[in-house]
Design brief:
Length: 437
Amino acid sequence: MKFRFPGRNIQLETFFEREFEKENFRRERQRAGLLAFIFALGVGGLVLFFNLLDHTIFFYNSFYQTLLTYLILMSLYEALIWFFFKKGMILIPKFPIFAKFGNSTFELTCLTGTLYWISKEFQQPILVMISPPTFIYFFFIILSTLRLNFSVSLWTGTMAGLQFLALSYFLIEKQAVYSENDVYAKSILPYIAKSFILILSGIAAGYVAQQIKRSIQLSIENTEKQNQILRLFGQQVSPEIVQVMLAQSGTLESRHMKVAVIFVDIRDFTKYADKHSAEEVVEYQNAFFGIVVGIVNKHKGVINQFLGDGCMITFGAPVSLENPAENAVKAAIDILDEIRNANENGLIPNTIVNMGIQVGDAVTGNIGSETRQQYNITGNVVIQAARIEQLNKEYHSHILVSQQVVDEITAIPIESKLVGYVHLKGIEEEISLWQLA
């Protein structure tokens, strides 16, 4: 059975819209910043280049003045947009799509108007359409990819192509003197071709924008998967296990796995709870389980259930371990040592813990409904671990394990001893028990 996220379609849609809108604002700001930088660079380059040639040209030629004015104003305009997005991202919950179309149209129209004004300085006005400033159209088209919308990029390319073609046709018709051998001065065909290229550039930019959007969506979905896994397992899972699960794309199939199970019980917890306030009880539980969780994470285990006066811990699922019994025994001994240290240092009320450990085959997977699911471990190994833990009171011990566990581990504590064969409630066959502490 596949690992399914409760309400994923609804939750992911909401999560994606929210995160994508944030990315949308960032990309718009990035686009405005790039354009502001490009136009500012153009201002510096224009001043430097033409002053090196002849500084008098720069001040008195209307062509250069008009082009410089355009570059300065556009640089300020884009810088203002960049600043707005930097300061106003939180103020606007969603950036309207029509604003992108309007902004694109305004930018292109300003360029077209500037080209028209510059054309007055040419003896043959149509030649302005093959001058370097016309390449600015491509800046707007290329950077439209940052708007993450195919329609906006297509609109930008189409508007650039149509405005370019319209101005070209107007200037050719307006021109009185034609150069006999200059095809650019008397034929509209080269400008139709260039207009078509601009439109195709818009289509290409739209395709790139769509691919960027898909990669962002995939990234957001992966982030949501991580969040879902973290919400499902909370602080029960060690970071190493989380990473393995994420590497498996959050797919956890129901299957049989070899696991070791520990049941931990706080002895006489009920008496403590009866004599103390709810706040004191919760504080005690948090301190106790804080110790347990840290140790379990260290040994790559999972706390499947918090039981109030104890917990159930699993080693070997959902991520398999080479020797789950070894991890379980080491974790149990560490828990016992840390609880004793906490008792001696007054970090928690005087606490005695009992633990029972069993190793064996279990069925692992999610159980529940579409709205709520829980990762679960089921099988005789779980029942036997719980029954073994309950025998600690009878044998005045702290850690009891089955013979199967002892057979799996590389070494047992020095003070360990064989208890003998016992009959567990609800289990037909007797099992051999060892006391490790």
